[in-house]
Amino acid sequence: MDLKIGVVGGGIVGLATAYKLAQKFAGAKIILFEKETELATHQTGRNSGVIHSGIYYKPGSLKAKTCRDGKHQLEAFCDEHGVKREQCER
């Protein structure tokens, strides 16, 4: 099968989606559509830069679990690709 996938938006969510799709569907043709000349210039470029850990959601809820999983995946990605990040300790 000749799988072709289009992802709209070059912010953190669109880029992460394209990345995960490329991992899951090796050989797929993936195109990213972004209206700006640079990536992450809208909401992604204006956020606080915090990797949320799910503490704002009900403990054990799907939102909390998904948030924690995403946090771990993002930290692993940063470590694997040499992206600097700060770990705040309490």
How do the strands and helices of this protein lay out in sequence?
Layout: E1 4-8, H1 12-24, E2 29-33, H2 43-46, H3 62-81
Parallel strand pairs: 1-2
Structure, briefly:
With 90 residues, the chain is α+β, with helices and mostly antiparallel strands. The protein is built from 3 helices and 2 strands, in the order E-H-E-H-H.
Low-confidence stretches: none
Percent of residues in β-strands: 5-15%
C-alpha-based Rg, rounded: 15 Å
- Structural class of the helices, strands and pairings? alpha+beta
Helix-strand topology string: EHEHH
Strand order of the largest sheet: 1-2
Architecture overview:
With 90 residues, the chain is α+β, with helices and mostly antiparallel strands. It has 3 helices and 2 strands. Strands 1-2 form a two-stranded parallel ribbon. Strand 1, helix 1 and strand 2 (29-33) form a beta-alpha-beta unit. The chain is globular and about 45 Å long. The chain starts with a strand and ends in a 9-residue tail after the last helix. The mean pLDDT is 90.
